Amino acid sequence: MGATERREREKAAFREQVLDAARKIVLTHGFQALTMRKIAEAIEYAPGTIYLYFENRDAIAAELTQRGFEELLRAFAPATEIADPAERLKRIGELYVKFGLEHPETYRLIFMERYTSAVFDAKHDSGPGNQAFQFLIDAFDRLRAQGRLATDATSTQLADAFWCAVHGIVSLKLTCDGYPETPTGDLQRVMQSVLFRGVLK
Amino acid sequence: MGATERREREKAAFREQVLDAARKIVLTHGFQALTMRKIAEAIEYAPGTIYLYFENRDAIAAELTQRGFEELLRAFAPATEIADPAERLKRIGELYVKFGLEHPETYRLIFMERYTSAVFDAKHDSGPGNQAFQFLIDAFDRLRAQGRLATDATSTQLADAFWCAVHGIVSLKLTCDGYPETPTGDLQRVMQSVLFRGVLK
DNA sequence: GTCTATAAATCGATAGAC
DNA sequence: GTCTATCGATTTATAGAC
Questions:
Q1: What confidence score (pLDDT) does residue B57 get?
Q2: Using CB atoms and an 8 Å cut-off, which of residues 78-117 of chain B contact chain A?
Q3: What is the pTM of this model?
Q4: Do A180 and B191 touch (CB under 8 A)?
Q5: In this structure, is the CB of residue B47 within 7 Å of any atom belonging to strand C?
Q6: Beta carbons of A120 and B178 less than 8 Å apart
Q7: Is the model's pLDDT at B198 over the cut of 60?
Q8: How far lies B128's CA from each of A47, A199, B1, B20, B155, in Å?
Q9: pLDDT computed for residue B154 by the predictor
């Protein structure tokens, strides 16, 4: 039985090699450059070998997206300890935009390619997507409980709007080079102050 | 000389045929499906013939993007006549989101592919991009002149933030199927009310 | 001006030898 | 388990006949 376990480890190690190489390709040359042949070349295996560990290219892309999303979640960690819900939300917004701009290709892979739904597909489950989103909703719930909300919109609606706002900043900055012309930091601050002035009492 | 003018018209007509066919392909099958061969097949010409009228595929995509953007601008027309700057901005936001969701592939082509910069490249000129953007800035300038702004952010910053917000709604709805789960209309309204409560006195 | 034919480069995925 | 070899299908773009 030790042999099968060793084999299991080797299999996992090979998958890691593939995913690492794939990640590097996406990070440096963009998602469209992710081909089986390039991965194979990077790990010094024949292209066909990869198919013994991954069903196809999409399976690799999906797993990469999943991991990118988990990376984004980890970036939020510093914010989770902030007690005040408004300050917590502000910090999340900052960290979100920061992550998007510092990891453009990862962000693109997560939210601007066709594999996004995979992350959220466990819609009714406690998948990583909903888990993160619940975090936003909780913050707005907390604000409501403290009587600090100046709107009758639901927490889900507010969380969605919040997400749209920060995603808008990141995605526009990533695709429209030079636009918006306002520097990201200023844009983030203006958006933040406007949003919170609009939401809080 | 009549002959050269006729030829000029025929040349323009051929280009229109190509662009029409290309537009249909992008609209129905997405941008990645736009290939020279498919265009050629649609207009019943040999693939090589198109190269006599367009330098390459990118030139077609760029012109398509340009036209898509002008289409978006025309969608704003009903808003230009609204006298009150705040109401005008609200209407523009509505029309923007409406356009994006009703013409997803056109919107993708304009703001989510790699040809966006072409539209704005005349950065210091009065290109269509800046023209539309100036319209947003003017509205905020007007609000400021009327003493109705509750923020010290510049009009450019506010216009950029406004754009990010509506773009965030559209692009997230277009890529993350089912997310945000708030229906677009509600999302639009919540975003709008929050933004304007945050900006206006 | 248009076509046929094709070059040259990709790609994903598979079959079969070892 | 890995590789070689390759199928089969794409694509952009060009060369040369007509």
A1: 95
A2: 111-114, 116-117
A3: 0.94
A4: no
A5: yes
A6: yes
A7: yes
A8: 47, 34, 34, 21, 19
A9: 98
